[in-house]
Amino acid sequence: MEDHLNKQSLEVGCQGARPGEPPDPCVVVIFGATGDLAHTELIPSLYALACQGLLPRSFAIVGSARREWDDDTFREKMKQAVKQELNSYTDEAWQTFASRLFYVQVDIQDEPSGAYRTLKEKIRETRDQFDIPDNVLFHFSTAPSLYGTIVEKLDAASLLKQDDGWRRVVIEKPFGQDEESARRLDRELRCVLDEEQVYRVDHYLGKETVQNMLVFRFANPGFEPIWNRNYIDHVQITAAENAGIGTRAGFYEQTGVVRDMVQNHLLQLLCMTAIEPPVCYDAESLRTETAQVLQAIRPVDVKNDAILGQYDKGEIEGEPVRGYRDEDGVEENSDTPTFVALKLNVDNWRWAGVPFYLRTGKRMNRKVSEVTIQFKPTPHLMFPTEQEGERMKNVLTFRLQPNEGIIYTFLAKQPGADIHLEPVRMNFQYDQAFEIDEPPSAYQWLLLDAMQGDQTLFPRSDWILKAWSIVDPIVKEWESEPWLDLPNYAAGSWGPTEADELLRRDGREWKIL
Ligand code: BG6
Questions:
Q1: How far is residue 235's CA from residue 227's CA, in Å, rounded to a whole number?
Q2: Which of 29, 274, 392, 407 has the most Cβ atoms closer than 10 angstroms to its Cβ?
Q3: Do 465 and 267 meet the contact criterion of CB atoms below 8 Å apart?
Q4: Catalytic site residue 265?
Q5: DSSP code string of 253-298
């Protein structure tokens, strides 16, 4: 089998990835296997790993959900999904991969002696068939409210016993709905699992460019000496999407943008920017340092420093789109926010006085995610400039998507008899530098890390709780009494005008993207 898949990897051009030690042979069990995530991320990522020869020597994948599918249906659906997601699909590699795919119908609420016993039986059968030791990775991508129940039932069915191998649990976000419910879920998990067995997913941490932020700062000597309040004016973090909520109204109406994007992805990006140098690149050091960053964040002045919004109808790429309140499954007077802009302060020695401006939203002008470091001007400029603003042109951008890369904008002399300064760009493009069509998906690395027992890119429980404590006041204040009239931005725009005002009052403006 590996022969097929490895050969395949050469043919389909999986360049750029450097295989390390393969993980322990194991069975991967996916709860919620009929859902979107399994179709768009989990199975395509596992297939891509198999093509690169990065999966364990022997493995099997057992999908489970409530639907009455069997092995063949599961294989056929996943085949269509992989074909749609990956250009690298080939029938030959798929057939080998699909022979390791199985399905068990499980109603999560079922008794441990019912469906869970069938699941246990299936795990045992696949282990016998492929000679897999007793290692099982459970992946939860069901409704988050079911996570506690799944763990309880798995435990009752003796599926979490680690007598002859390991058990690990990968949990999709959101981890709780607020600090209190996250604490509760944490307690439920900890009754039967150690922290070392729990892998809380934040897929932003698996993005190549996010990991590159650390490499850029800590593997190169040039920028770290100026990475502080003496040289940095402010930081902007944007995760804009032009998509709406699609078919996720049920989830989104309960969640809203602050819980969906800020409590996890945006705060992780802030941590990756503001982190102190960890002693080494391992789970303990990195997770301790990111938790320290959150500790230093000043409680948000909600009324002044948080702007929320909801999209109205508008146009995206020339096509008319409806407003949030007209989306299927959304209340006609819903106050669920789909946009947020925030000003955060990190009160520590390095960052005192350097604001971090965050913004994210659905149905914005286009899909783009960036972290921008705006440097201060030189203390004195001997060259003539027409505008004071010209002196602020030193900007470092980590571009997460699209066109992943790192861009440094600085001033140069324009050719000519006079000294005329113009901003120019040094541009590192991920695809060109590493000759890859597109960077591997975040899920590939996260699934591989979980199989290898590496928690470096998975947030620790204290980080999650602290992140909730930062965003909870915003959500609570908004839910008790919204302070802006919604909808307040047109689909296809860059958000409400109040978000521009948030920076303008500080004499700054959002970078044009
Ligand atoms: C998910 C959110 O975590 O991240 C979605 O639930 C959002 O609402 C998505 O669309 C954005 O991820 P990415 O990788 O496309 O920026």
A1: 11
A2: 29
A3: no
A4: yes
A5: HHHHHIIIIIIIIIHHHHHHHHPPPPSSSSHHHHHHHHHHHHHTBP
Instruction: Quote the CA–CA distance of 470 and 291 in Å, as a whole number.
Output: 12
How many Å apart are CA 99 and CA 400, to the nearest integer?
35
- In short, whether 488's Cβ falls inside 6 Å of ligand 1 is no
Global pTM? Answer: 0.94
Which strands make up the sheet holding 59-65, listed edge to edge?
A: 101-105, 59-65, 26-31, 136-140, 167-171, 198-200
Distance 328 CA to ligand 1 centre (A): 19
| pLDDT above 70 for 65 | yes
pLDDT digits (tens, 9 = 90+) for 318-373: 999 999 999 999 999 999 999 999 999 999 999 999 999 999 999 999 999 999 99
Give the list of residues 6+ apart from residue 222 with CB closer than 8 angstroms, or none: none
Amino acid identity of 74?
A: F
Backbone angles phi, psi at 26, to 5 degrees: -160, 165
Alpha carbon of 285 to those of 11, 290, 381, 458, 459: distances in Å?
Answer: 38, 9, 41, 12, 12
Q: How far apart, in whole angstroms, are the C-alpha atoms of residue 405 and residue 429?
A: 4
Can you give the three-state secondary structure of 225-253, one letter per residue?
HHCCCCCEEEEEEEEECCCCCCCCHHHHH
Overall average pLDDT of the 162-178 stretch: 96
Give, for ligand 1, the residue of 177, 241, 327 to mutate: max count of ligand atoms closer than 8 Å to Cβ: 241
* 369 CB within 6 A, ligand 1: yes
pLDDT in tens, 188-231: 999 999 999 999 999 999 999 999 999 999 999 999 999 999 99
Q: Cβ contacts of residue 216 below 8 Å, gap of 6+?
A: 223, 398, 406
SS3 178: coil
Q: Which of helix, strand or coil describes residue 168?
A: strand
Q: What is the mean pLDDT of the chain?
A: 92
The reply to whether ligand 1 has any atom less than 6 angstroms from the CB of 370 is no
Q: From the CA of 254, how far away is ligand 1's center (Å)?
A: 16
Band (pLDDT 50/70/90 cuts) for residue 386 is: low
